[in-house]
Each structure stands twice: as structure tokens, then as C-alpha cells.
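Sample entry was shown:

___
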Amino acid sequence: VNLVIRLIPEKADGKDSEKKLVYLNQRLENQPNLAISATMKELHRMGEIAGKNYNLSIEAFFDGDENKVDKVKQLESTVDYLSDSITKVMIELRGLDLHDKDLVQLGKLHHTIIDLERISDRSEDIAEFALLQMDVGQSMTKDAIDDLTSLTNKVNDIIQLSLDIFSTLDQSKMDSIRQLRRDIEFDKLACMDRHIVRLQKQE
């Protein structure tokens, strides 16, 4: 198996958004014990890029900035590349002499790839809606902006906290995740209700 991995650096270099693997980029045939650790580091890096793309898409939406929309699309392309590349490496990892628990962990990490890619996909959707909003010249009321700002900040909080838990394996923070999820769901419904009221009042 012609696998790739580096003896795992603690942090990626400054070129963290480049279309390349940082932690999975040298041979691993003789170092299967590093497989899971390296994969998790690469996935955390992918998650940071996806989180960055979410924040950039929100900025593009609120600022009406076409340059930021273009950057979102570029980062989405990077996330897609990382998703495909990490998945290919994980398939090859299954050919190594791994413990059963590591094979189970690889299966769980595959779901993580899907979740992280979904964040970046939704970010691209937000950026594309920002373009549509610019094209039709729509504007929002201050109340609408305040509602969406509060909601999007909480979404960013849950993304960042999830990445922190993924990196540190600190399960004690799961209660905070669950509370944030409840808050986001409540705020989403409240935002929709207030938006309907504003439409009815033609605000």
C-alpha cells in the first residue's frame, strides 16, 4: 500500500488553506500506529477551513461583498479536495495492520468528513444567496440583521466548540453543545416567526 503521512507536526504551517494534505503526506506502511492520530489532525485542519468558510460566507452575506463570495467558492473547492483526498487515504489505511478498534474509529471518522463537507456546502449556499440579494438590491431591517447576527454567531460557536471537542476528546463539553443546539433551534423558529410578522406589516 503506497500510503502517505508525515511524522505528525503539532500544527500546520501558515498555508493552511492550500489544496494539499499536511499530516497525511508520507508513507505509512511501517507506522500504522500513527494512522488514526494523523487522520484526526488532517480532519481537524479540514474542519478549521470549513469553519473559516462559514464565517466568510456570513461576512459576504452581511457586507454584500462579491470578493468574499469568490473566496468562499475557493475555500469550498479546497474542502472538496481534502474530503476526497482524506477519504482515499482512509480506504488505503484499511489495508494496514490496524487494531479492530482503529478500524471502527476509521468508520466513525468517515462520517466526520461528510459532516465537515456539509458545513462548507452550506457556506457556499449562503454566499450564493448573498449574490442573489445583491443582484435584486434587497436590504434588511435592523431587527432582521440583529436576529440573524445572533443566530449565525451561535452557529459559529457550535462549530468551534465541536472542533475543540474533536481535537481534545473532552466529553465534558458535550452539555454545552447540546444547549447550543437547543438555543439555535429555538432562535431559528423565533427568527422565522418575527420575519413573518415583519412581512405582514410590510416592514
